[in-house]
Amino acid sequence: MNFNNVRVPNVPSGGAASTLIKVGILGGLGIYGIANSLYNVDGGHRAIVFNRIYGIKDKVYPEGTHFIIPWFERPVIYDVRARPHLVESTSGSRDLQMVKIGLRVLTRPVPNELPTIYRTLGENYNERVLPSIIHETLKAVVAQYNASQLITQREAVSREIRKILTDRAANFNIALDDVSITSLTFGREFTAAIEAKQVAAQEAERAKFVVEKAEQDKKSAIIRAQGEAKSAQLIGQAIANNPAFITLRRIEASREIAHTISNSGNKVFLSSDDLLLNLQQLMSDNALAKK
Q1: What is the pTM of this model?
Q2: Contact call for residues 79 and 104 (beta carbons, < 8 A)
Q3: pLDDT tens for residues 1-27?
Q4: Phi, psi at residue 97, to the nearest 5°?
Q5: Which residues of 119-151 are buried (b: 16+ CB within 10 A; e: fewer)?
Q6: How far, in Å, CA of 197 to CA of 112, rounded?
């Protein structure tokens, strides 16, 4: 077999291969640098930059796209929007009643103090600070009020808690936008005492109503008796002045009896005596009265 006419491909020399490797490395580093030299800060967030040589920079970066040096720097992004935190604490009131109070707090970091927050508290600043200062504040404020005052003066208690918490959180560069009491739960003994007090108050109101009703009934009976006595007096005077008054009353009574019987479905026959008429007797009485 003749190999004289076979062509052998050209193989690059050692210098050309090393050049290709260098180009590939530089290209990879360039792609890595471009991909890691830009970062975005979303809305409602702020960023600080950690440098491997200088540490945390004092500048706070706003929303948008920013440039960093790859590997030497890395961004630390904080959410600066207000976030709710629900905390429950069991405290003793001034009259030694156990009170379980629930508090809702809206907090956010102070944007310009983010470098200080990162140096002193780190990224999970809420978990490190808020539980301790909230529990301490609640215990201090609740101890100043009786259990009943916590109910009747709830707004004042909430204002005092907010004032103390705001001052305490400001020491850690944390802003409080709102503080509100969500629940108040008392011990079984105090709850039973409140229910018993309400029942006693209702019984007292019922007894007061019974007494007032009795007074009104007494006044009504007196007025009714006075009216009947006055009526009897007037009737006696009328009979004494005019004997025919009795005759008039008999006629009125007989008329009512006759009207009632006539409306009845039964047939009834009554004598004049039963109808209280007895005209003959009336005539004789009138004659005697005239003599």
Answers
A1: 0.59
A2: no
A3: 454 554 545 545 556 777 878 777 877
A4: -100, 135
A5: eebeeebbeebbeebbbebbeebbeebebbebe
A6: 54
